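Whether sequence alone determines local backbone shape is best considered at the level of individual chains. We regard such an encoding as a compact summary of how the chain folds. The sequence in question and its structure tokens are set out directly beneath this paragraph.
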Amino acid sequence: MNSNNLPRQTIWNKIYYNKYINGLITQSDKDIRILYLCVFIRQFQYGLLNQILIFYFKELHYNSEKIGIFLSLTLFGDVILSWVLTWYADALKRSNIIKLGIVLMFINGLTFIVYDKNFTVLLIVSTLGIVGDGSDVGPFKSIEESCMAHLTKKKYRPIIYSWHYLFSSIGFSIGCWIAGTIVDYLMDNQIYTTYLNCYKFIFGVYCLLSVIKFIAVQFFSENVNMNFHYNDEEINDQEVSNTILDSEERPLLADDEALNESLLRQPTNAGNIDMVSPAKVVNEIEGTVSQRRLDSSDIVPITEESSKLSSATVSILIKLLVIFMLDSFSYGLITSWIPYYYEKTFLLTYTHLGLLFSIGKIITASTVFPSSMITYALGPVKATFVVQSISAIFLIMIPLVDFNVKASISALMGYYATASMDVTPRQILLTDLVNANEITKVMGIVNVGKTLARCFGQLFSGYVVQSGLLKYAFIISGSVLLTADFILILSFVGIDKKVLQHLRRK
């Protein structure tokens, strides 16, 4: 072997055999990658709105109380929409529901451009179109997660979900940065003379992104609409060591220095990553991912009887709903008002606000894989308790150190670093404990409960802000979050053992 090639070979091996990069390459196919694109674009759109929505209504001279009512009622509409769409998503086909969501978001953005003076029209259309703030409310996140659960074995779901949330965070981060930069650019160069027109321009970008996303989802395969039940315990890796399936599985279990002969075929050029056509590699992986899914699973027919929730699932669901709803109420108290708080407290410009929340989401994105690692190590319940308790403390600190902008921003960044580290553990907890045919409905019900709780949080926040007490909303929010965490750890810590058995199965 040419010694000059060794450094490149070593670097390629280390990158390729990294657990998370290898998982992205070998455990995802076209459908999962389209789902990643969907969440990236949707969160990009939400990032745009996060920076301007409150200021949009302020420009229209609505008071804080009315804005709170608007945010609350749109979330209440999302509750009804989420319930209906997720309950019938399997029967109507999950891909169709995703497409419907994209159309509704397009109509929503267009309405904010055309009917800005009509509060009632904005309210009605926003109820159907989903006004997101980065938390990804509405039924479409639940349906995407259900699709990925069916397309992926249990032991690989933390990796697949981690990448999903990473693309989500990156999309939101870019959206925040772009929104703030665009507004200041349009005003500084006098392209528009009013902030309202700048905000309408942002909604135009929002609509364009919906069109791009709608084109992308036309390439879904029928697999996204199927319920796969994986026979993990029946698979013996030793028996299939010489098949394509094993060549697909082996990288996640191999040592870092091992060489994947299926991708690097000529020993004398093993370090040359150009030896195999990228398109050929993708096609091979695409085929083996789909084949592995068929070989290791049963397709569960979608019928009226199979779609009912079992009594065991209902029992677990009720307990989890209480905890998740408290958490969501906490989030609803402050999430939409954070940009407004920093603008009023520290007089930050739109560009500075956009940069601040963009950096915050980048920090959030950087915690995605550590979140997955904690889940593998502790189990989803303990992992959620640890990270969310720390997050609650940072949240309470934000207004307590408002005498110093650096201290307050540091607390905010600490909050962003931990606030979303519970996403992967919670996804794993839900998808691992329910049957294949129940996943979509369970995730939909959880999302409905969370959205309803956030609805009341948003409503309460409007009155708090109108009373000039926004800083206390942070303290209340953190306290409620801590309460939810302690209820979770006291009620469900025993579940971790069962879930870890699935995650660590070879």
Notes: Strands lie at 227-230, 297-300. The two ends are 33 Å apart (CA to CA). The chain has one domain: 21-227+305-503.
